[in-house]
Amino acid sequence: MMNTERITIMWEITLKCNLTCHFCLSWERRRKNYSNISFEDAKNIVSNLPENWHISFVWWECFLFPNFIEILKLLEKRWLTFEITTNWTLVRKNLKDLNQLNNLTNIYFSIDKYWEQHDKIRWKKWVFNEIIEVIPLIKNKVYINTVILESTTSEEILKLYKLFLKKNIYHLRLAYYTNFSLEDIGNSIKKVNDIEIDMKFESWID
User: Fold this and answer.
1) Which long-range contacts (CB under 8 A, 24 or more apart) does 130-137 make?
2) Taking Cα atoms as reference points, which of 118, 130, 129, 125 lies closest to residue 92?
3) Average pLDDT value for residue range 69-80
4) How crowded is residue 173: how many other Cβ atoms within 10 Å of its Cβ?
């Protein structure tokens, strides 16, 4: 039986990504040529994790880690819960396995703009459409993760929010823009607060 009092631990299991978003901190870290841990090292980490930990796979693109699904299955064998943050580009290839994982509590997907503007940030023309197509196929809880950029407006966020409400996604996590100056970060924090206020007001409309 699983212990319900869990401590969330963030795990950057890989330092690889298949997108080149201009605001992402991974650009700087990629230039330093960090090496990934091996599959064997990852297995050893899993075998030594405390039973009350909840693992959150963050940053980069976790599905690029070799045998990532096998790591998730090992976590499940130990009755450990886990969640994933992904850019969604590789979810379709792993749908069957993901839908069979009982301890995968939720999947966060990153989406920061509406349609072509989102794809422009990602430098890929098909990413937004891939998200729209695959969401109905996933059985796990799906949450939106949105980075508030310099150009983000309340209207844009509300448009995204309403779009995904229609797809039974009710949770929107707003993240601060953290890749530039303290002034940029401060402006982002203020913008997040303003948008959250607008959303609370707007949610009563329709």
Assistant:
1) 130/88, 130/89, 130/92, 131/88, 132/167, 133/92, 134/88, 134/91, 134/92, 134/95, 135/164, 135/167, 135/169, 136/167, 137/92, 137/95
2) 130
3) 95
4) 12
pLDDT tens digit string along 126-155?
888 888 888 888 887 888 878 777 777 778
Banded model confidence at residue 202, pLDDT cuts 50, 70, 90:
very low
Q: Write down the pLDDT at residue 195.
A: 62
What are the C-alpha distances in Å from 28 to residues 31, 64, 186?
5, 19, 21
Q: What is the pLDDT of residue 45?
A: 95
Token pair belonging to 76: 């499940």
Written as one letter, the residue type at 44 is: N
pTM of the model: 0.78
SS3 content of the chain, % helix, strand, coil (to 5): 40, 15, 40
Q: Kind and range of the H or E element at 129?
A: helix 127-134
Query: Could you give the angle at which helices 68-77 and 39-47 cross, rounded to 10 degrees?
Result: 20
Strand partners, 162: none
- Which residues neighbour 204 within 8 Å (Cβ) at sequence distance 6 or greater? none
Alpha-carbon distance 99 to 48, whole Å? 26
